[in-house]
Amino acid sequence: xxxxxxxxxxxxxxxxxxxxxxxxxxxxxxxxxxxxxxxxxxxxxxxxxxxxxxxxxxxxxxxxxxxxxxxxxxxxxxxxxxxxxxxxxxxxxxxxxxxxxxxxxxxxxxxxxxxxxxxxxxxxxxxxxxxxxxxxxxxxxxxxxxxxxxxxxxxxxxxxxxxxxxxxxxxxxxxxxxxxxxxxxxxxxxxxxxxxxxxxxxxxxxxxxxxx
Length: 212
Hints:
single chain, alpha/beta, GMP Synthetase, Chain A, domain 3, Ribosomal protein S3 C-terminal domain, four-stranded mixed sheet, four-stranded antiparallel sheet, about 30% helix, globular
């Protein structure tokens, strides 16, 4: 059959939580555009900070932005100057007060977004795709992942015909709702064209009520 569903969207409200925690029927369009602007601005300004997730919560007029990063020092800056500057810049974007929280990511090798972007960056630097994929799989298993799958698609190594290649190690129960599956699709912009890099990481089972 070949039909696939998004591993995170499949689990929303069961074992996965939303990246934007709010609802406002009257200002839904405005808030959604603000969320997109906030995420794009943070990821562009802190491109080297290894950001794995940006969570936005709104309660009445209070907006809280939580940044999950493997390099919190780059977000804080010297004496929190970079963090204060970022807060002021976000205030100018959404025209209201913003609170910024920073959470450290302890094991970046188990975050699908960071793994996918790392592979994409290596492909742009002309590293062999097999080598980059195998290294990511090996590191994830060594650091505690119960399963990982990495797939790249496109003109691999400059080939005339696009193709897909993947590596998998360990278990990957995509149809089990209690399975904690982290998924991300990165894009590598090479001189031959774009190459898609998909990463699935299985971190174990979680109880349905323990939403992240």
